[in-house]
Amino acid sequence: MEPREQEQIRRNMRAFEAALEAGMTGKLGPELPESALLALDGSDQDEIGLDLMIHCVRTFGLRVFLLPAVPSQSEAADPDREALDAALRRFEEAGLEASGLLDASPEAYHRFSRALSSCEADWFVLPCPFGHDLGELRSRTLGTSVEVPLVRGDRPILVVRGPVVSPEQALFHPHVILRENLPESSAEALRLGLGLLASAAETPDLRVTFLLPEESEPGPIHERDWSPPDPDLRAALGPTGASLFHRLRETRPDLAWTAAVRRPSTLHPERSRVGGRLHLLPAPRMEDGVEALLQHFLLHTLDPVLVVPAPQRGS
Fold it and tell me: Which residues contact 9 (CB under 8 A, 6 or more apart)?
């Protein structure tokens, strides 16, 4: 690589330092959720969400709440009760526990809102497209029942899409996207990704994508492998972010790393070769619908995506 290209990469990396450091201020370390609400819609995605949640319960003791919201066109006499009973049996068969919630509201979002307030779940797990098997709509639409929680959401939303061959592979080989213009939600996405890695039973690996603004200074953008304490990586993450990585490195010396620099137009959510990789994607505050980048990413991946919102004002 030419010296000029190396210097361009260093300048791009250092663009993250001030922003991520601002977002990291006051953050103490890797984080894991204590509880999650899993919505059930009677689609193929229910089994995928259940597999992921069962593995989280086994691995780090996640408390899971189950909320059925099966569309009214279901042929079952009581589709919500039927879906809930089937999901609870999955946990019982695994020797684990989950809590069931029922709500008679005809609007899925009203059920979601009340259940989230009731159980105070840290994560919301949502099939997408809601109420349909993935093959029916695929990349055409997210659906209102997904879009409204994304726009109004005040907590991470795990969007479940296509089949996941192995929950371990998906959860413990995460892809964390860091967005220069979203320092606080990027910091939270990083902390959650590191929390998952710290709890991994198998050899974990981490993929990080630094997402520059589309209008950023032109120059070569290269994908490359990094190993701490690479100065470019430290510059990108800032002192607090580098400290989190160092702490995880001490805990998991077997951790493998891959890092890349991208612009939004080159961020393509290709399906991971390991059978489904969890993507952690920071999201901005949204008032006029789902952000175009977020919508494109969700519609063009089969992998699960954890959408990490911006912190609420005053929180």
Answer: 219, 220, 221, 222, 232, 261
Superfamily of domain 35-155: HUPs (3.40.50.620)
In 3D space, the residue among 6, 27, 23, 15 whose CA is nearest the CA of residue 236 turns out to be 15
DSSP 180: T
- What phi and psi, each to the nearest 5 degrees, are found at residue 204? -90, 160
Helix then strand then coil, in percent of the chain rounded to 5, is 40, 15, 40
Q: Looking at the domain covering 3-27+167-308, what would its CATH class be?
A: alpha beta
Cα–Cα–Cα angle for 25, 27, 28, nearest 5°?
135
Band of pLDDT at residue 25, cut at 50, 70 and 90: very low
What b-and-e string marks burial along 80-112, b requiring 16 or more CB atoms within 10 Å of the CB?
bebbbebbeebbeeeeeebebbebeeeebbebb
pLDDT tens per residue, range 160-184: 988 888 888 888 889 999 887 888 8
